[in-house]
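re: ur question from yesterday

yeah so i grabbed the chain u mentioned. its 421 aa long if i counted rite. heres the sequnce exactly as i have it in my notes:
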Amino acid sequence: MKTLEKAKIYTASVFTKKEPQLTVEAVAGARSYINNYWRNLIKFHPKDEGSLIGLPYPYLVPSYAEGREFDFDELFYWDSYFMVQGLWQEDNKELITGILEDLLFLFKRFRIIPNSSQYFMTGRSQPPFLTSLIMDIDKHYDMGQDWVNERMAIAKEEYQGVWMGQRKPNARLVYRGLSRYYDSNYLNDIAETESGWDMTTRFQRKTLNFLPVDLNALLYKYESDFARVAKINGSWEEAAKWETAQEQRKAVMNELMWDKFRGLYFDYDYTKARRGTIASLAAYFPMWAGMASEEQAARLVDSLKRFENKGGLATTEHSSGLQFMSVPTQWAYPNGWAPLHFIVVQALERYGYHREAKRIVNRWLSCNLVWFNHHGVFLEKYNVVSPDKPPMRGLYPSQTGFGWTNAVFERFCQDYIDRNE
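ran it thru and got these structure tokens back, copy pasting raw so excuse formatting
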């Protein structure tokens, strides 16, 4: 029987079993599509052109479709981190290291890594993954300590100047050592796009009032990475400084954001001195960053049931906050997103919850396959409650392709299917 026919048979029955079990054969057609699709996403624009900022190296864009009015020519900050996760083969070393150099180039030129490489995006950034990208590249390609030190020095400038800035154009550090998402125009909805979750129910259209749990967990990860590199360099005094910073951040986040009764972290509205009410997958970023205690991790694992559906994890708990929103909220129930699945799965693996991680992976891959085997494309997001139905729409047209979906699908196949064969 041909592979595609077997895949369709698998798709038809995938949600009739309690837990889907995937094989190399079931994902072969999808992986072939992904492998062939990458060439569509590689762009190279070495010179400024209109609003597009020239970059010194080729990079990946999120999506491409011939003849579509809504398309991408620019590099995106956090998209880039997730897109490289399925491309760690040696053949892609030049592309991946080039993407990092493009991000560093943008920071050197604008003193911020913009949302994307468009001039009109320079007033805001995106969730900061710079140290994680540096460390991941060194892990896979053994770049050497001098290489790491040089790039970490730039990451420290980004950390201090952008994410710990206290005045316009970077007024992000606002309350008890914690930071918020921001926009230099001081507009809530545009600040929400810096979160990458545009749009979401989490902030109730008041993003500037909230200390986001994911952002501050990412900054904890920066401090942890800085401490780790300092120890490797034998700089014990500097390492102690960063360890103190991360412990202080963890203590304040636990006080303000951890809800021991619900077993989740929540964003904190510092203007009203209270936690937000929207349960979201942002709660798992502290676990991914390694700042959750074993007890907190156990509670977070138990809380997965709030988000878990037959197609994977919904971005927020069922119907959380939707009644208050007047804009489309694609970063909310019933939609699921590849980068959030990647974060949650890595968080589970970090704390030893391998069975739960595998279950989430299988459901997410199966959800992706349902759509691919019927429509021949991957999506930027999925309806995880009803995987055969379209996802909830957003402010812009729904995209196919799709960079980070493809990458996470491939990475999960490598980690959870190939290794079992």
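noticed a couple things. The two ends are 20 Å apart (CA to CA). also Residues 1-17 have pLDDT under 50 and may be disordered.
anyway ttyl
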